Amino acid sequence: MPQDQTNSPPIExxxxxxxxxxxxxxxLNGNLATEQKQAQRLSICAQCPSRVTVPIIGDKCNDxxxxxxxxxxxxxxxxxxxxx
Length: 84
Hints:
Layout: H1 11-29, H2 35-46, E1 51-54, E2 58-61, H3 68-71
């Protein structure tokens, strides 16, 4: 019998959901990173081995699953490796 009988998603998915909610909240409240900060974040991501390029989508983080062009725009988003 499984230990966890609840319908809760695994902890790593809960973190992604929380991050997604935070990003949505930032967009709705207009809390966007400056263009300088966005460029700085993308520069860091460009050197990361977790960055992959996906057709049509563009660059994506393999650790968190986020599309980088969108993630770097929200003020309170963060790198899962804590690089920014």
